[in-house]
Design brief:
Farnesyl Diphosphate Synthase, 16 helices, squalene synthase [NAD(P)H] activity, transferase, Isoprenoid_synthase_dom_sf, Trans_IPPS_HH
């Protein structure tokens, strides 16, 4: 299957192919819901999405590497050196790094702006220097680079028919990230971080100290409900953007929307007990969404084709 995907994408260089396969394994191992959604894409599109995931995952590993004994300062240096090497490779258009080979190839093929990667690494660095955010505007700087730009990077691969598709992809990426923040309040505290804006928590009488008690009090639950309402608003507003993508890509993003934003449904299902339970989308629901989407994706590929394998092949629809 992997070889078929690489062939369909027109990726022929043996070392670059190995890099794409490595990125796919990272996606399969760590991003199970994301990986499931990518299977709905045409085979010719999947390697590029895997590559972008690989970059994000590897950087995340550096930031969250709590077992190596490295300090935040040491990890910041590690991240800075690795990102500097990545940007040097991006400027050259080739890389020898086992992960970055595929990422650089993807960025060059699809003409993905350097500024998206710059914003991403800025946010990764923030995770090593910032432990809380006072307002949503403060948080937005972080989520733009950690989530919104991931959507923006992927959009060219999905061949948008309108420029406004980028704005909707940005909103959907933020919705995905906020849903994770709501689910992972306890895990983030373990890493010394609070991503829910402190000013908004105070509106419900909740402080960081209250969160650190790890008790889902009525006030904490109301604060989480407020954050969930934002996820749903962003999700609703972003729906129209999916229709602006290549028809063969739409079932993938629609399934991802339902699965990722569905995390907040599961938070409600456990009565907001995010400190003692983990809200996960059950496998039966994942399959119930993925199987119909797979049928739609196959039908769309038959009717509209699989799309281009680089930016220069994209034609207006």
């Amino acid at each position: 299957m992997s070889i078929r995907e690489l062939n369909a994408a027109g990726i022929t260089d043996p070392m670059v192919r190995m890099s794409y396969l490595r990125c796919k394994e990272l996606n399969k191992q760590y991003g199970k819901t994301y990986y499931l959604a990518t299977l709905l894409l045409p085979p010719s599109k999947r390697p590029f999405v895997h590559a972008l995931y690989g970059l994000a995952r590897y950087a995340d590993e550096i930031v969250d590497d709590m077992e190596s004994g490295k300090t935040d300062e040491e990890r910041a240096i590690w991240l800075s050196e690795w990102s500097a090497s990545f940007f040097a490779d991006l400027d050259r258009g080739v890389s020898d790094d086992p992960i970055c080979r595929a990422v650089v190839d993807t960025a060059v093929r699809w003409e993905i702006p350097r500024e998206y990667f710059e914003a991403f690494f800025t946010s990764m660095t923030m995770d090593l220097t910032v432990t809380e955010y006072e307002t949503f505007d403060d948080l937005f700087t972080y989520v733009y680079g950690s989530a919104a730009v991931i959507g923006l990077q992927v959009v060219p691969i999905l061949e948008p028919s309108e420029q406004s598709a980028f704005k909707y992809a940005q909103d959907l990426g933020i919705a995905f990230q906020l849903a994770n923040f709501i689910r992972d309040v306890g895990e983030d505290l373990d890493r010394g971080r609070v991503y829910l804006p402190l000013a908004e928590l105070r509106q419900f009488g909740v402080t960081r100290a209250d969160l650190e008690k790890r008790i889902a009090t009525p006030a904490v639950k109301e604060a989480l409900k407020f954050q969930i309402s934002r996820v749903r608003q962003l999700e609703e507003e972003s729906k129209i953007g999916i229709s602006m993508l290549h028809p063969a890509a739409q079932p993938c993003i629609e399934a991802a929307r339902i699965l990722y934003c569905g995390i907040v449904d599961e938070v409600e299902g456990i009565d907001y007990e995010v400190f003692t339970k983990r809200a996960t989308v059950p496998m039966r629901r994942r399959l119930g969404i993925a199987l119909p989407a797979w049928l739609k994706a196959r039908k769309a590929r038959r009717e509209f084709g699989a799309g281009a394998t680089c930016a220069s092949e994209v034609v207006p629809r």
